[in-house]
User: Which sequence fits this backbone?
């Protein structure tokens, strides 16, 4: 540690302060040309068009306190999210919580010293880092002791579910003995562990023995610690400026040859990336890969509400660290990174009077790293501005970036906050920062009144849920217990927030819009409307949660295929479904849903306008039927019921081909010679191209009169007009099961009657009315039938 202040004293354990004066170390990396424009976000004066958004697209779900203490600083805020648990990690210890409840699940609640007791030889253990490795589906925790030279400890869980301390495998290595050996008089401070497909990358600041001398990076072969050891570590010593930090990555690498990365240095205008080749074998280190960045300045110590202002050069202010990077993430060939900096009310590095979070998106890591965009999260208030510090970034599978940080100001108590940028937001922009946990009062802790600022941090953590690749979790420090008046007994807390992604796009269109009943497998594309960043999402293989769908009216969803954020394809079955319009609900992997109403209809495969029978001579019966529309209609068979009480059977040779899919009326007929008495009932068996079948209502004949008696529907009905849209005329078919007084009327959208088509008593049967009105203009109209107690309306469209 920086001044070797790693021992417990009478007032508690205090980690040493950060090295704030980095000017002497910045000379290793050449100064870039500068002048690159940086976008800024703030609450007030700001060119970012999204800065006025006080209703963020990411919303807070679970929000719980994972730890609290007052006799040691800083907490070293860490956490990791797994399939079912959240692991809270800090200098106080490790605690597991249920991911769906936010309450401690009892699996693990242990101090760091006890957790690592099998490898720490009784030494005080601190500076923990935690990760859930979604590639191996194992948890990884690292820490260190305070010896000179000291040791790095590594714990690897045996499964994806944490059960107890015994369900871990523990490792340790002496920092001076790792090949190549060195730094034997040094203490390796502030370990910054990152995990990728092939390795753990652990950066340290080396104090030899009590002042900063150099930095090192240790590459731990991941396959070795996942398989029970022995541990294999390679050291790269004297890698550059203070605080090298590795890059986390979940990108799978079956070949085992993908490189690892870390940032070794940062100046006021540039940063330096380093590439580690063959981290799973014999690691080698690249030269500096320099990236020019917009100008930065060091953070300042922060005034906070309720500061007791004791003596000392920092007057009780809160330590905001320096420009070292917080945890970083690589997805594909793109790196996302964030760190603290000092800015003024315009968000630039000049006469800094507040702190901000600077973030970067760097592309082309495998070739020539290039800055794609950057931004500064800051408050532009003229007085009592909020400072954002210890900022970390996570990027979801949807491409949204989410930032977590501490919020500190002279007017508010120390709190935890977040903001985000959606994948399609303007370059460099973010949403308005939000506070998800408010400090409860002033923060004057036991380390108040020393020659340095009060400790805060040293870390924070923001991470993506491995179950759905879209939910983000952040763990930040806040004031959990205020100090009493004139005292320094405040307590810090760690607050964990679940940050939900925008919901699915709102389903607004189904293609096709009609899917007949009886179909076992039909593809329908659902189009969604984007509202405030909403969109469909599917994380792909390797995740437990996936996009799903449901449809009303008895429709079965066989499968869901993600296409893009506004399109999914459903394979559905309408076997056993009911007729009528259907609502479609799409549920994203995080459980959020959106519903579209009346997106498609499930009509019968044919719209049968009429079905009748009549004697054409003494022995023969002619059956006639007409369809108004057909969907995938293969054809018809005529069936008859021999004794009027038994089963229907198809008449041999009675097949009549259909017209496939058509919106035009078609007439059909078949002649039968029913020699038996009494006369049989008849019905139609309709067959689809996919083999599905449907049946019409039966009709019967009377021998005495030789005329049809049941050209009559079983119930009242009103068919959709045909054609529709129409010009100049259209036909409307309706059915009466009994003789009725009928009114068929056409109205405009204002409810005004524009035509009376029928106003008389009519016999039972099917009837057709024609609507033809040359005086009406184009538009939507409604036709309504009143027949006895039956009333129905439908919409028609006139196009001139």
Assistant:
């Amino acid at each position: 540690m920086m001044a070797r202040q790693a021992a417990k004293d009478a007032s508690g354990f205090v980690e040493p302060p950060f090295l704030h004066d980095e000017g002497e170390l910045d000379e290793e990396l050449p100064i870039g040309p500068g002048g690159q424009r940086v976008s800024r976000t703030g609450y007030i004066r700001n060119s970012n068009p999204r800065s006025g958004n006080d209703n963020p697209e990411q919303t807070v779900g679970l929000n719980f306190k994972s730890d609290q203490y007052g006799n040691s600083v800083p907490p070293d805020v860490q956490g990791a999210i797994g399939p079912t648990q959240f692991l809270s990690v800090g200098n106080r210890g490790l605690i597991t919580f249920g991911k769906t409840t936010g309450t401690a699940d009892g699996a693990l609640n242990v101090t760091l010293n006890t957790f690592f007791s099998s490898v720490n030889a009784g030494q005080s253990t601190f500076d923990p880092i935690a990760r859930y490795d979604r590639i191996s589906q194992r948890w990884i925790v690292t820490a260190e002791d305070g010896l000179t030279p000291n040791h790095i400890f590594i714990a690897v869980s045996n499964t994806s579910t944490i059960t107890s301390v015994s369900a871990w495998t523990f490792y340790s290595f002496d920092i001076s003995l790792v090949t190549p050996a060195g730094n034997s008089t040094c203490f390796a401070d502030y370990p910054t562990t990152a995990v990728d497909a092939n390795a753990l990358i652990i950066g340290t600041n080396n104090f030899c023995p009590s002042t900063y001398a150099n930095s090192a990076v240790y590459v731990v072969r991941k396959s070795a610690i996942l398989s029970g050891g022995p541990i294999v570590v390679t050291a790269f010593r004297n890698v550059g400026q203070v605080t090298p930090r590795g890059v986390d990555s979940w990108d799978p690498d079956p070949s085992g040859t993908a490189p690892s990365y870390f940032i070794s240095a940062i100046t006021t205008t540039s940063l330096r990336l380093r590439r580690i080749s063959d981290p799973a074998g014999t690691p080698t280190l690249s030269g500096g890969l320099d990236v020019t960045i917009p100008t930065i300045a060091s953070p300042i110590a922060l005034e906070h509400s309720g500061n007791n202002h004791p003596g000392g050069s920092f007057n009780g202010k809160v330590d905001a660290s320096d420009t070292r990077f917080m945890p970083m993430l690589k997805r594909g060939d793109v790196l996302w990174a964030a760190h603290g900096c000092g800015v003024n009310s315009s968000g630039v590095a000049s006469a800094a009077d507040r702190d901000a979070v600077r973030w970067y998106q760097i592309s082309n890591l495998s070739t020539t790293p290039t800055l794609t965009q950057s931004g500064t999260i800051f408050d532009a208030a003229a007085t009592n501005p909020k400072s954002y510090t210890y900022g970390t970034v996570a990027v979801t599978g949807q491409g949204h970036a989410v930032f977590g940080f501490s919020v500190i100001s002279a007017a508010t108590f120390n709190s935890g906050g977040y903001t985000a940028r959606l994948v399609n937001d303007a370059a460099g922009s973010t949403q308005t920062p939000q506070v998800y946990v408010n400090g409860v009062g002033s923060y004057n802790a036991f380390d108040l009144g020393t020659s340095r600022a009060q400790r805060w941090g040293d870390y924070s953590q923001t991470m993506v849920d491995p179950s759905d690749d879209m939910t983000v979790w952040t763990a930040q420090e806040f004031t959990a217990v205020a100090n009493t008046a004139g005292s320094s007994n405040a307590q810090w807390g760690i607050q964990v927030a679940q940050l939900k992604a925008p919901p699915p796009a709102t389903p607004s269109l189904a293609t096709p819009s009609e899917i007949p009943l009886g179909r076992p497998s039909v593809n329908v594309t659902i189009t969604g409307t984007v509202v405030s960043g909403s969109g469909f999402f599917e994380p792909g293989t390797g995740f437990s949660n996936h996009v799903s769908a449901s449809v009303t009216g008895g429709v079965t969803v066989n499968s869901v295929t993600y296409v893009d954020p506004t399109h999914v394809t459903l394979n559905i079955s309408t076997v056993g479904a009911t007729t009528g319009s259907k609502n479609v609900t799409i549920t994203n992997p995080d459980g959020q849903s959106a519903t579209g109403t009346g997106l498609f209809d499930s009509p019968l495969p044919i719209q049968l306008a009429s079905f009748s029978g009549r004697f054409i001579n003494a022995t023969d019966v002619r059956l006639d039927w007409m369809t108004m529309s057909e969907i995938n209609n293969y054809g018809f068979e005529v069936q008859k019921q021999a004794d009027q009480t038994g089963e229907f059977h198809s008449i041999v040779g009675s097949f009549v081909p259909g017209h496939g899919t058509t919106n035009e009326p078609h007439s059909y007929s078949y002649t039968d010679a029913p020699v038996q008495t009494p006369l049989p009932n008849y019905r139609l068996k309709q067959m689809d191209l996919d083999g599905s079948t449907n049946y019409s209502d039966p009709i019967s004949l009377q021998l005495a009169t030789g005329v049809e008696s049941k050209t009559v529907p079983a119930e009242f009905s009103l068919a959709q007009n045909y054609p529709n849209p129409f010009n100049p005329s259209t036909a409307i078919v309706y059915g009466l099961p009994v003789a009725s007084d009928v009114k068929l009327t056409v109205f405009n959208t204002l409810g005004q009657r524009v035509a009376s088509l029928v106003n008389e008593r009519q016999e039972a049967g099917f009837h057709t009315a024609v609507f033809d009105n040359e005086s009406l203009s184009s538009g939507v109209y409604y036709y309504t039938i009143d027949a006895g107690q039956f009333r129905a309306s439908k919409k028609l469209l006139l196009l001139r």
Notes: The chain has a mean pLDDT of 88.
